[in-house]
Design brief:
There is one protein chain. The protein is α+β, with helices and mostly antiparallel strands. The protein is built from four helices and nine strands. It has helices at 27-43, 76-93, 116-124, 157-162, and strands at residues 15-20, 45-46, 49-50, 52-58, 62-68, 102-107, 110-115, 133-135, 150-152. The strands form four sheets. Strands 1-5-4 form a three-stranded antiparallel beta sheet, with helices on one face. It is globular, with a radius of gyration of 16 Å. The chain starts with 14 loop residues before the first strand and ends with a helix.
Amino acid sequence: MTELRELTTMSPESRLWVYQCNRLLSNDEEVQLKMDLQEFLASWNSHGAQMDATAQILHRCVVVIALDESSAGASGCGIDKSVRFMQQWGEQQRVDMISRQTVIYLEEHEVRLTGLPQFWAMRKAELISDDTLVIDPTILKKSDWPENGWIEFGKSWHQMMWGR
């Protein structure tokens, strides 16, 4: 089985899917997920064409799948396969891999996960500033993805939602 490539090896135009967990993965879960991702990506295709993809697990709670669509693009069925893979893997491990109600942020060099309502309460209490580093799961293109995934709150989708 081929080792997963680093995201840095992918074209800047690669398409991204960012999956957030609702909790940190254990070391064993992270190792298992990496092996399962290798297996999945080795067989991931769109209308029979093998796709040039890789994945990376960051901070024990973020999975980024990158796809270079210059040779084979992802069809709706192909995208559904990846989403289904992540959902099923999470169900087996009792972790929500597609959590949209969790915010992942950095506090005093520690990765923190909290629910969206709690995060907004912390922002209102000024415990979250424009400089607080967060994971922005809405990024769709590798060229927009920071190297380690962290982006300042003030430059993320969170700020756009806060300003409403």
